[in-house]
Amino acid sequence: MRATATREQVRSFALEVGDTVMTKDSETASDIGVSTHVAETVDDLVCGYHLAILRPGPDVHAKYLTWAVRAGAARHHLATSATGMTRMGLTYDAINSTPIPDIPFSDQQRIADFLDAQVLRIDAAIASRHRQQVLVAESEASRAAGAFSRITGRIRLSRLLRTSAVGVVVNPSSYFVDDGVPFIHGYNIRDGWFYLRDLKRMS
Prior knowledge:
- The protein is α+β, with helices and mostly antiparallel strands.
- It has three domains: 7-102, DNA methylase specificity domains (Adenine-n6-DNA-methyltransferase TaqI, Chain A, domain 2, Alpha-Beta Complex); 104-150; 161-202, no CATH class.
- Helix content is 37%, strand content 15%.
- The strands form four sheets. A three-stranded antiparallel sheet has the order 3-1-4, covered by helices on one side. Strands 2-5 form a two-stranded antiparallel ribbon.
- Helix 2 packs across helix 5.
- The longest helix has 45 residues, at 105-149.
- The protein starts with 6 loop residues before the first helix and ends with a strand.
């Protein structure tokens, strides 16, 4: 999407390494206060209206700030401070009054380093499990292909089925809701298994 910004806006809302970027408004309170750490940036990259930039002071460890904003007390404060009807948002004062544990810089660094290391371990475990799933699926597909290649007779699929049907044939994106009937779409079908996270819901 194209948009325009003045040079002053680019300077004011440009991201810097060490910033924490946080959602400040959304349709649901649970999406308020979702944050991430800026480890690197590029020229002329600016923050949009729905985000808040938290820039740590000289006595605050940048990654500690990101982790602290994600912690339970801060997230609860942000979620309960959001106001609005169809769209909820945080005021400047609500963001600035978020409770953050006040500890020495050395302790901030130890906490940030510990949590970063834990995330790396979890990510590595997830990646390893994914590789195992891929290898298992490839092995099963290879064995199935080998077994069926020795069968010469063929029959139409329809003669083996009691019934067949296609799924919902409307445009599902027009009916997406937060609390509706879950449905499986192409994203959830993997080779040999169902991926049942992130199910869409429709009215």
